[in-house]
Design brief:
Pfam family, one: TetR_N
Helix content: over 70%
Strand content: under 5%
Radius of gyration: 20 Å
Largest sheet: none
Structural class: mainly alpha
Keywords: DNA-binding
Distance between the termini: 59 Å
Number of strands: 0
Protein name: TetR/AcrR family transcriptional regulator
Order of helices and strands: HHHHHHHHH
Number of helices: 9
Shape: elongated
Length: 201
């Protein structure tokens, strides 16, 4: 089957993502993708140069998608159409269904964390939006601490749930949404104004 260069690249990246989600980063080889698509190994070398080139392109694509998702949430928040608690669903969906959990773990283990820089910029924008909406609930430093604590809390939980949550939930006999529900219940407490002398460490 003859394909345009754009079609071939798109199909290869789709195949690589399937392999990442199903079998992990080590499964993403030029041979595996070529076999999956009925495409020649040489053809993939022409498009990506190497397996590392294919993996880097997949990283860029997935980071771009995650960035767009978070940007959309920020826009909804600014327009008054979203709530702070929506951050739980946004982050958990991105790390789980979108594959960002596998992606982040892969980046950390391969020393490619610099690819996450665009997400950092958007997360900071989200935090700024939440902080502006919390005006009057305390001084700026206290609000910043609460909002960043909530961001760390939910993001680390979402990452862990995406990577090992399935196995842990089976061990303790809990439902698929257990960690997400727990975060949703605890998030208001993390964000709530603290009594004088209190605060999060």
């Amino acid at each position: 089957m003859r394909r345009t260069p754009e079609e071939a690249r798109t199909l290869a990246l789709t195949s690589a993502r399937r392999l990442l989600l199903a079998e992990g980063p080590d499964a993403i080889t030029l041979q595996a993708v070529a076999s999956d698509l009925g495409m020649s190994h040489t053809n993939l070398i022409h498009h990506f140069g190497s397996a590392a080139g294919l993996q880097s392109e997949l990283m860029r694509q997935m980071v771009s998608e995650l960035t767009t998702t978070i940007e959309s949430a920020v826009m909804r928040l600014r327009a008054g159409k979203g709530e702070v608690k929506d951050f739980v669903d946004i982050v958990f969906d991105a790390f789980d269904r979108g594959g960002a959990g596998r992606l982040a773990a892969w980046m950390a283990l391969t020393g490619e964390s610099m690819h996450l820089a665009p997400i950092g910029e958007v997360v900071r924008d989200y935090i700024d939006s939440v902080e502006r909406g919390a005006d009057g609930e305390g001084d700026a430093a206290t609000i910043h601490e609460r909002v960043t604590s909530a961001t760390l809390f939910v993001t680390v939980a979402a990452l862990g749930d995406a990577i090992i949550g399935n196995e842990l939930r089976k061990m303790v006999g809990r439902e698929r949404e257990a960690v997400r529900k727990l975060m949703g219940a605890l998030l208001p407490a993390v964000l709530a104004p603290q009594p004088k002398g209190g605060g999060h460490s």
